[in-house]
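Morning run. Coffee first, then this:
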Amino acid sequence: MSDAYVKLVNSPAGRNIAKKLQLPRPAVLRRYRRGQPLVPGPVLVVGNGTGTDDLAKQLLDWGQDVRRHATPKEQLGGIVLDLTALSEPLELSEPMLTVGGALRDLAPGGRVVAVSRPA
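And here it is:
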């Protein structure tokens, strides 16, 4: 959809019209601009193993606020899910439950990134 449409249906007057006409209202996604923080809020890193620690360290080197455990009601700028240490599907339950609980606290336009190894 074009940017003009997104701006229109997300404006106060356009929001009411879109609701009455049952038009879709796509979210306005945040775009990175030079000088702004890479992620607008803390980044939750979920996973086990050395790969997860390496991801967290890299994010810290980039100046991000990295969390290993979610704080309830805190707006998260992003979630990084490291699945590289998993060896079977049964091991997915713990990280997925953690991410599922944190999704409610994801800021508007926040991103979720899953990192896995090749199949």
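Residues 37 and 64 are 8 Å apart (CA to CA). Good start to the day.
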